[in-house]
Amino acid sequence: MDDQLLIGREREQAQLRAWAADALAGRGSLVLLAGEAGVGKTTLARRALAGSGLEVLEGVGVQGGTSAFGPVVEVLRAHLRIEGGGPLVEGPLAAHLALLLPELGPPAAEGDRATLFEAIRLALAAIAARRPAALLLDDLQWADDATLELLAALARSLDTQPLLVLGAFRSDELPRDHPIRRLRSELRRAGRLRQVTVEPLEAEATAALLERTLGAAGPSLRRAVFDRTDGVPFFVNELGSALAASGRLEAGPSGLELLEGEDVPLPDSVRDAVLLRAAGLSDDARVAVLTAAVAGQTFDPELVTAVAGLPEWPDELLRQGIVAEAAPGRMAFRHALVRDAFYGEVPWTRRVALHRAVAERLEATHAAPVVVAEHWALGRRPEQARASLLVAAEAFCAVHAYRDAERTTRRALELWPEERDEGTGGARLDVLERLAGCAELAGDLAEAGTIWRAGAGGRATRSRSGRRSAGWPPSSSSRAAGRRRWPAGSRPPAPSPPPAWRPRPPPNGSPRPPTSGRPGASGPP
Description:
By secondary structure, the chain is α/β, with parallel strands linked by helices. The chain is built from 22 helices and 10 strands. The strands form 3 sheets. It has a 5-stranded parallel sheet with strand order 2-3-4-1-5, with helices on both faces. It has a 3-stranded antiparallel sheet with strand order 8-10-9. Strands 6-7 form a two-stranded antiparallel sheet.
């Protein structure tokens, strides 16, 4: 790990290493690592854990969402790869863990969230019992609700295990109702809130970081870089590398300075710095990287080359450090800010077409329905997005991720046509009943009651107009049915909207950018 990215982080690194030492001694904990995008949270965490004696397993929250418990499932699978397979949990709970890891065997036919949480807890405890471990869960601002609820439950038992759970999140992307705020509140009430906040660098540390990239820098260049970057390490490094590659610097009496007498303004944003650094890409590489930015932060290069119409993946993107290998058959942008920069360069009409093409290929390969839905939505295909969201809601319910099911079902209802005929109105009321069941199981009883009443009003209106109203108000059995999964092997109803209907675009008339505080809230997956 490069020490240059840790300038000015001595205090934070010492604190994280102290908690890692406690975990090694059998006194684990949950630690939150907060900071704005590009401030160096991931690098700090990895550096602090390096040499700690803990086995480090990483999971990442995916923008746009993924399957329930996504970061935790990634951690468990990483351990299975290292250990060469084998059961993580013995006995009856093994079948409950198989709900998340089908490779472990047949899943449990029945169960509840508490049982699944216990199965996950025992699996993590088994990992730590073999060797003290640290779980680095990154980008939790994009994690599913089920993962964050699990962390609150895990925190109660970590103090007697050699297990450190380190969760990093962007503190500048948390709306008021974000579940991370609920997680922090629960931890604070229980006296278990441990958080390190990573701030931007001061002017002196920014200059030191810049000089690790460029060599000695003159006073005016140091001031200009600090003013432009506000001390955000990622921006400092991108800007320094871009300036070094552009030939816009000359030697001065006290170090490098910007060329005089020419129009060579510094980039005003991370996006400008990233694009300046990538200005020399070949045509094929540029097409590939723009298509990959639409596909996602982590992507399949074969899918990207197929959608982009290229004969092969251009390796120069790897050589220039724009992307990196993430796993067998997978690549990832070096940083989410790099992906954001290229995504913003894709013309809107082209972006819509690419999202549709990516959605078609992902759907054909049975990718996570919530990811497919995001691409359909950003590709302006609301019918397909709605159908995928309802399938995703079923999958969330199957693993007791009821808040995620509630949120996903609500998004499906938002995509319903405003003009509803007799056929679509009844189907929408059926889904509204499912939403009420999800809200009830998620513990949002007041919200569930409001939805039940709205559904009852809709059924009554349809009854007065002569349309079918059987089954409303719901009996106890029908309410239970509303809390069960969609029928096995079937899709929830997804009626086609009238031809004149179109989804309402965001206020600026274009798809929202990638950066988002919640999975499935906006932007591509």
